[in-house]
Specification:
Elements (H helix, E strand, L loop, with lengths): L37 H14 L15 E9 L3 E12 L6 E8 L11 E6 L6 E10 L11 E13 L2 E12 L3 E2 L3 E7 L47 E9 L3 E13 L5 E9 L10 E7 L4 E11 L2 E13 L2 E12 L3 E2 L3 E7 L16
Antiparallel strand pairs: 1-2, 1-9, 2-3, 3-4, 5-6, 6-7, 7-8, 7-9, 10-11, 10-18, 11-12, 12-13, 14-15, 15-16, 16-17, 16-18
Length: 368
C-alpha cells in the first residue's frame, strides 16, 4: 500500500469558477484512489505522454527544485487556482524522489498546516507527478468561487529550469457536477522569498498559446427570454463584477469595464472589455465589444469565440438594466474546449466595483 496521498482542502474552500466558462467558464481521466503505488501512476503518465502526439511537446530536464514555489493552475471549466508549494528533492536517492507540501495561495506556510503532503518519484528527465485527492474547495476560498467543489486532481509536471516547472492536470470534478479535468494546465515559479502573487505566474507551459488551429465558433443561439424582468435605461459607464451561473451548475466571475453612450431615441450603445476578476489593472482584456442598448435598457452581447485560458466557448449574454448600479440577465451558447457543454440555463448578475479593491461578496448571479 502506498503512503496516504490524500489532500484534505480546508472547508473554507470551494467551486471553479467555471469556466466551464467557469468553465468559461469554474472547475476541475478519472483518478482512482486506493492502493495503487506512485510508481504505477508515474508509469501510466509516461505511457500517456508517449501516446499523446497531439499536445505540444514540453522539454524537461533534471534539476534540483528544492525550495518554495508559487503555482498557478487553470482547471478545466475555468477554476483559477493558486497554491504555495514547498519541494524537497533527493537526486542522490534511487529512485529519485520529491517531497511536496502545498498550501492555498492565501495561506501562511509558517502558521497554517499544509493541505497536501506527499512523496513522488522523479524520472531521469525531471518529470514527476503530484496528487491532490480529494481536493475540496469551499465557496469563497479562492477568487470567483461561489459554490462548493470536490475533485480528484493529479499534476503531471515537467521541469523547465531551476526556476520553472509546469505541466497539465488530470482528474475529475465530483461536485457540483461530474466533469473531466483533462485539458487543465499549470505553471510554477520559484518564490523562495514569498514575494510573488498568483497573477505573476503563467497558467501553462505555453503562456502565449500553442497554436492548435484557432478558436471554435458556432452559430448564434436563440436569445433567452427576459420579458418578465423589468428594465430601464441608465448610464452603465464604469467597472463591474459579473457573477454568472453557467448551465445552472458552474460559477464564473468576470470583470467588465463599460462605457455607455446615450442616443437621441432614448437608447444608446455599450462599449466594453471583459477580463477575469482576478486580473490586475492594465492587463490585456479577454475580449472587447460594442453593442446597442434599447430605450428600455436591454442589450445583447454575442461572443462567438471567447477564450479564457484553455477554455473556448461561444457565449450569448442577454442583459437588462435594473438600475444605474445593477444589471442582470441570462445566457446561452456552448463550451467547446476542454469539454463540450450546452450553456442553456446560464444566468448572471453584476454590481459596480472599483478595480484594486477587494472583490465584492454576495453578488447575485441572476435577476432578482
Amino acid at each position: 500500500m502506498a503512503p496516504d496521498r490524500s489532500l484534505s482542502w480546508p472547508r473554507s474552500l470551494s467551486s471553479l469558477r467555471l469556466l466551464a466558462l467557469a468553465a468559461l467558464l469554474s472547475l476541475l481521466p478519472l483518478v482512482a484512489g486506493g492502493c495503487r503505488g506512485a510508481a504505477d501512476d508515474y508509469t501510466d503518465f509516461l505511457e500517456r505522454r508517449q501516446s499523446a502526439g497531439a499536445d505540444p511537446e514540453v522539454q524537461s530536464t533534471l534539476q534540483d527544485l528544492s525550495g518554495r514555489w508559487m503555482l498557478h493552475a487553470l482547471l478545466a471549466g475555468g477554476l483559477d487556482l493558486g497554491l504555495r508549494v514547498e519541494l524537497r528533492m533527493d537526486l542522490a536517492s534511487r529512485p529519485m524522489t520529491v517531497h511536496a507540501r502545498m498550501w492555498l495561495a492565501a495561506s501562511n506556510p509558517d502558521v497554517d498546516a499544509p493541505v497536501a503532503d506527499t512523496d513522488s518519484p522523479v524520472a531521469s528527465d525531471g518529470t514527476f507527478v503530484l496528487h491532490a485527492e480529494p481536493l475540496v474547495l469551499a465557496a469563497g476560498s479562492t477568487p470567483g468561487l461561489n459554490s462548493a467543489v470536490r475533485a480528484n486532481v493529479v499534476l503531471l509536471a515537467a521541469t523547465q529550469s531551476t526556476s520553472d516547472w509546469c505541466g497539465t492536470a488530470i482528474g475529475t470534478v465530483e461536485q457540483p457536477l461530474m466533469l473531466d479535468l483533462a485539458g487543465s494546465t499549470f505553471a510554477a515559479r520559484r518564490d523562495d522569498a514569498r514575494v510573488l502573487a498568483v497573477s505573476d505566474v503563467p497558467l501553462s507551459c505555453f503562456p502565449h498559446g500553442s497554436g492548435d488551429g484557432g478558436l471554435v465558433e458556432t452559430p448564434r443561439p436563440m436569445s433567452p427570454d427576459l420579458s418578465s424582468v423589468s428594465s430601464a435605461a441608465a448610464d452603465l459607464t464604469g467597472n463591474w463584477i459579473l457573477d454568472a451561473n453557467l448551465a445552472q451548475s458552474l460559477p464564473l466571475r468576470l470583470w467588465a469595464s463599460l462605457v455607455y453612450v446615450p442616443s437621441a431615441d432614448g437608447g444608446g450603445s455599450l462599449d466594453g472589455a471583459l477580463r477575469r476578476a482576478i486580473d490586475p489593472p492594465g492587463s490585456v482584456a479577454l475580449t472587447t465589444f460594442s453593442t446597442p442598448v434599447t430605450p428600455d435598457g436591454r442589450f445583447e452581447l454575442w461572443l462567438p469565440a471567447l477564450a479564457i485560458g484553455t477554455t473556448q466557448a461561444s457565449v450569448l449574454l442577454v442583459g437588462a438594466t435594473r438600475s444605474a448600479d445593477v444589471f442582470c440577465g441570462a445566457g446561452a451558447g456552448r463550451v467547446h474546449k476542454p469539454i463540450d457543454l450546452d450553456l442553456m440555463g446560464t444566468t448572471f448578475g453584476a454590481v459596480r466595483w472599483t478595480p484594486g479593491t477587494a472583490l465584492p461578496a454576495g453578488v447575485p448571479d441572476r435577476c432578482q
